[in-house]
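USER:
Before I trust my own judgement here, I would like a peer's view. Write it directly below this note and I will take it from there.

ASSISTANT:
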Amino acid sequence: MANDRGEIGRVLGGRYRLVTHIGTGRFTKVYLAYDLSQSRRVAVKLLSEDVLPDGWIGEGAFVGRFLEAAEEAAAVSHPHVVAAHNWGDSDLGLYVVSDYMEGGSLLGMMDAGHLLSPSQVLMVGLDAARGLEHIHDLGNIHGDIRPSNILFSRRGRARLADLGTSWALTSSETGGALMARSVFSAIDAVRYASPEQAQGLTPDEKSDVYSLVLVLTEALSGRVPFESDDPEYTQMAKMSRQLDLAGQFSRLGRVLEQAGRPERADRPTARELGHGLLAAAETLPRPAPLPLIKPGPEIPDTGESAAAVAPDKHSEETAPKAKGRMAFREGRSTPQEGRSALRKLLAAVVALVVLGAVGFGAYALWDSQFGTDPQPVPDLAEVDEAHLARILGESGWVLERLERRQDGTVAGQILGQAPLAGTGLERGETVTVWVSLGPELVVIPSNLAGLAVEDAEVSLAAVGLSVGDVTQRYDENAIEGVVIEVDELFSEVEPGSSVDLVVSLGPEPRVVPDIATGSSLAVARERLEALGLGVLEWQVPDNVVAAGRVVRVEPLPGTEVAADSVVTVVVSDGPEKVRVPFLATLGVGEASNVLEQAGLCLGEVDGPLDSEILASNPLADTVVDFGTCVRVITRPEEGAEQSPQEG
């Protein structure tokens, strides 16, 4: 890619000044930027034109797909997914603006030589699994889970990054052409890929789970399972071999082995992986703080670039050194160590040359650098860890570092030492220091579930804690606004911490089921009560639906109602009642019309059809069911026998 010097200081979209380059992805460069509008630090992921194939610059379909994917990603809101705030096209290329994660990336930790303990990996994995679960619930996949895309907040909570650009740049329309121009090598491209991707199959949610397992295993052991110098061999190994941690990492190892199975049908979902990790947490100790990057200072709105953020220095016990991944591998000295050793050697040579001239002074110089006489241990109480490492390195002593918590102290503070200050020690002897992990942990109140959020806030404040992220979800047994659970892995937290809560939205709304007209009342009641809805029976006459059968339900089927709603079931009590009209003296045709208007029908005609009606059966004014057919008797012809008269 092009040199960054021409990009630092540029302003994208009239708003985001690029301050310093902080990372490189497969197709993008990432910058720490200053949002001139909001006066805050943000991260800008820039897809510069030199990574695009010829002819793609300004190509409408690709630009549209990129910006559409960025917009879709911005709609994904979750505590464990990096939020995208803005996106656009500029003279430097397409870009996406997201939260600046001050804790750095998992890749940065491992490249700095830190391996994570099983407890630390469990916490990172649980956060990532929850982010994946949300992405998958929305019907999407991430598609590019790797250490550089797991970022950390200032509090050390993991979030998944690169969602929008992953969707846009790895799609079937663009992925092949861009992969050929990626800054990644062939082995980089397949390092975290799933077995099905090796077979050319479309990745799915289980593919994300497999990639996450590879990342977590690397953070534990320092190497990616099945990795070799031959990308084809790596993919074939994934397709045919089971992840084997050889009984390491206790229950956590078994959870990872299950989630890393070659057949995706055998793997858990992201939700199930999260449940497995939670179960494994019961067997692990509380994790030490993650080796996060120190948060950088606020960037003034001056237009000048800021200095790069320096990584934290951490002890070997808190974050052991990674093998095979460090810039300075085992067996080699760092540049600083090399320069120090060279200075010592030159000093020693000079001392030997002038030994005869200055006598004891030259000997003392040699002895201070390479001698084995005891040296007094200094008072380490006020020494920071960087200075401590320097003292021990120059004296040749071995450090035994023990940690504990103590109120009134800060993390990294040295609480005590053995032997005491002034004691003489030779090179190779051990100095033990007790280092503070910070104040004693605070127990999260156990009675938060069932409280209103305001009351939970008061309970937390009483022990020096506060409410953190609030996640809402439906709950069948809790009213709206009540705390369902505490979303923290451990029951004890650092003093002053914020505690994440899950709050009820109340029971999930119901949808009125489709109950067909003519159904029995028993069936309607059973279906409604199965959803927890109340039933109100309302009887009405109905000339079509048989008595005791459902005419309709109110509200109508498909309507969303509250969980405790009452649905009215309108039931037929049979046809309505009508009175037989007076038909005497009417003609047959006229009588038929009168009966129809009354909801009745003309039955048999007893007598001539062209004669007037003498009587009806049932008699006039008799109450009958709607739709009843009435028999009529007409006047007989002259000389015929007289019929009975009406009444």
